[in-house]
Amino acid sequence: xxxxxxxxxxxxxxxxxxxxxxxxxxxxxxxxxxxxxxxxxxxxxxxxxxxxxxxxxxxxxxxxxxxxxxxxxxxxxxxxxxxxxxxxxxxxxxxxxxxxxxxxxxxxxxxxxxxxxxxxxxxxxxxxxxxxxxxxxxxxxxxxxxxxxxxxxxxxxxxxxxxxxxxxxxxxxxxxxxxxxxxxxxxxxxxxxxxxxxxxxxxxxxxxxxxxxxxxxxxxxxxxxxxxxxxxxxxxxxxxxxxxxxxxxxxxxxxxxxxxxxxxxxxxxxxxxxxxxxxxxxxxxxxxxxxxxxxxxxxxxxxxxxxxxxxx
Length: 312
Ligand SMILES: [Zn+2]
Description:
Blueprint: E1 6-10, H1 28-38, H2 41-46, E2 48-51, H3 57-60, H4 66-77, E3 80-84, E4 87-90, H5 93-113, E5 118-121, H6 143-155, E6 160-164, H7 171-177, E7 183-190, E8 209-214, H8 220-234, E9 242-247, H9 264-282, E10 286-290, H10 296-311
Parallel strand pairs: 1-2, 1-5, 5-10, 6-7, 6-9, 7-8, 9-10
Antiparallel strand pairs: 3-4
The structure holds zinc ion.
């Protein structure tokens, strides 16, 4: 049997963030992904299955205020509650949130260890709306932003590229990374749409942000081409040492919270093309983390397609 080329990283605690079945970001999303992966026996056997770890408070503090981190911990310890009109927590949310962030950090560790350079982290809560000191939009901690800063600080990366194809602007990621010119952030998102940020002329203080606002309902190729133009611009004179993907599958056609039209073939091709670029940039280091996506069966199918492309 050949060596696995990609890891599938998750953590049982990600299922302990109980938002209720009426909430779009419910635990059934992860269960659907696991089920779909088990139903694909070839792929299931081809990936390295790893249980992630909990990020430490020091690691979360790479991107978040300590007082906020402690608030999340304390609210969960009291049984949970709403941190934002959209963002509810339960007693398991602290463990879930630090397992989600820690799983992505494990992906970064693997990528830099050089054994398995690609991974997909099936985590929740998602992260790309979380701000330095505030929960927002179903997100508690900026999993990908923390991972980018961790790669710089702990692994000596000089440059990190983040590609966010969630249908919503990664406003939290932008806020957490835009002060650091070593991190280039590309976000394609529906416009105008939640959360209202992400205009094309919002380039950040170092012009290291590439926002790609797009109207809904266009042919899928328009989204893919626009995203590639931004990735090309973001890497024109800055070769990344690591590619992080904020893999939001609410950009698929039919998502209840978005109007984009991507199909499975687009997820497959985007992933393969990004991996090809990553081979030339950085020995193929690609760590992808689940963000949004609210049709569980479609999200699960997309995760399988995405993971299969990562193993190619
Ligand atoms: Zn989203």
